[in-house]
Amino acid sequence: MVNPNKKVKRPDGLGKIFKYKTSEDGEEIFTLPIIKTLNDNYIYLLRAIRAENYYIPENDSCFFFKEIVYDNEVVGFAAYRPSNINESSLIMQYMYVLDEYRNKGLLAEELDEATTLFESSILIEYPSCDTVKTLIKHRLARVFNDRFAISRIPFYVPMVDIDDATSGVLREGYEYPEKVYSKLSLVYDLELCCVVGVASDDIENMYKEGVADEETINNYNIMSLALAEDDAKYGCVEKRQNDEDIANGTYFAKLKDLLDENDSVIENWLTLM
Contact 187/259 with Cβ under 8 angstroms? Predict the structure, then answer.
């Protein structure tokens, strides 16, 4: 019997990929339940995930489940699904690596490997603050004004009511409405631990659930919900609640000014790969 606490070995150093299945007629798609895949194949990863309270809803699934290998052992995984924004991209829903294997460049390696393997650009869904700091470390993101990171890897987040985001409501357990819009952004606030999207035209236009105009969905300021892991480590809920610029309504206008002032620098930097 295989020891469930022992890491899965990959002597050739190549990680295995689990892929969604389709029905014989091709009409139905059967995605991979993430928790079940972990439980059936990598119980040591699942135990570590639960010990850290790393958030994966029990019923969440993916199209591709990819092992992350280090020194011929499976030390983590990444889960992907297609994007409804861009057909040539995949969303990295989750990436988890055992604690002792972090800070070894595995995120940058995985992004590069997945881009080549799937022949797709990769979008990161709900990045944690530490994820963004890793992107910065590997020059995949750059910091402006000692606070805002501009990323070469787009971030993908569902749009939520601005009051929920600024008051510090947590993503974990959040009940989304039946109709959910999503937004891509390259901007991350390292102080408040959130992806930020600036309205395309009207900087005073805040996203409000139930009153948004679908035809002008990009013309709303948005902020992602707080993650429990970021709040535990960086206290981002209290910071959002006490942020002066949020309180006086100048947060997004100041961010837009910063982006406009550095527009040419950002554009040049993003094109240098």
Answer: yes
Based on the domain organization, do 27 and 132 belong to the same domain? Answer: no
| pLDDT score, position 1 | 41
Q: What is the mean pLDDT of each run of 10 residues along the chain (273 residues)?
A: 76 93 82 96 96 93 97 97 88 96 95 94 96 96 97 95 92 87 95 95 86 81 95 96 95 96 93 76
197/239 same-domain check: yes
CA distances from 204 to 97, 107, 220, 227 (A): 40, 36, 8, 26
Q: Both 206 and 75 in a single domain?
A: no
Q: Which among 125, 144, 173 is the end of a domain?
A: 125
Q: Are residues 97 and 218 in the same domain?
A: no
Question: Which of 125, 141, 171 finishes a domain?
Answer: 125
At 273 the pLDDT is 62
- 177 vs 76, 91, 101, 252, 268, CA distance in Å? 32, 21, 37, 25, 39
CA distances from 156 to 126, 187, 256 (A): 6, 11, 19
**Which pTM does this prediction carry?**
0.94
Which domain covers residue 16, as residue numbers? 1-125
